[in-house]
Amino acid sequence: MMFIKRLITQGIIMLGVFVVAILAIIGVDLIIACVIGGGISFGGIVFGCIKLRCPFCHAGIPIQGFFIEYCPMCGEKI
Ligand SMILES: [Zn+2]
Asked: Which domain holds residue 17?
């Protein structure tokens, strides 16, 4: 389950980067593109910070990486 939440988080962050690229390509001002894309990516990070938590000690689980099976704080299997 943690794997899926991390995948969603990384997906939203990637979407933000993707949106910046698309908007830049279609001629939107780069600053506006960065604000919109950055906002999406930031939303992904916030989502990750809220959802990627150890169910035992409630420590934040790193967004990076794919197969983190054990909590880095308490060592419980997540
Ligand atoms: Zn923990």
From this structure: 1-78
